[in-house]
Amino acid sequence: MDSKMKKKEIEEVFGGILEKEQDVSAGMAAIRTLLTVLEHDTSETVQELDSNLQAAVDAMKNTDYPVTAVASGCELFLRFITLAKLDTKTFGECKSIMLHRGQLFLKKLMEARGKVAKLASSFIVDGSRVLIHSKSRVVLHAMKEAARANKRFEVYVTMSSPDNSGLEMCRLLEEENIPCTVILDSAVGYVMEQVDMVMAGAEGVVESGGGQLYNGYLCT
Prior knowledge:
The longest helix is centred in the middle third of the chain and has 31 residues. The strands form 2 sheets. This protein has a 4-stranded parallel β-sheet. The protein is α/β, with parallel strands linked by helices and 220 residues long. It is built from 8 helices and 6 strands, in the order αααααβαβαβαβββ.
């Protein structure tokens, strides 16, 4: 009996989350998929389980979704849960702790967006002009927070070719009655001197605190 989920099953779980839940990032979907893989895995050794989890990561990297988001999300998740190897004597106990830590990690991530958005919204002041790139869930959440605090501000959002996700971001901002103008990606230099600040989501964040943008949906 195969101890792991098949590649196609993993891709279906991962893609299904992203298709059904538009507010979920690729990184978050990848972590949820790894939790599903962990729950269904029937490995009998830590080495075999590690191999199956890595195979799941590779399967998700080979889909059409942002690779950096998948890679960074999975790396953090695996690093967090595999600490269980140091604390247990039996494989069964190890796997149980890994599942618990994985669920705890996911819960913390789900809470993080709101916390980051609330903190970021404090930087938006009355009368400011803000430049943003493409579509970012956290940036959108931060601007909603600022608007609900009765702050008046204007937004410029890049078109973000080739998927033009900036148009979707503009529509979402306008639904919150936030004035928004879509600009061409090449017009950033022209607009820069007219804005007070730039806000951008990150598809992946490295240990030094730096981030990597993706020209499309951002993993935030």
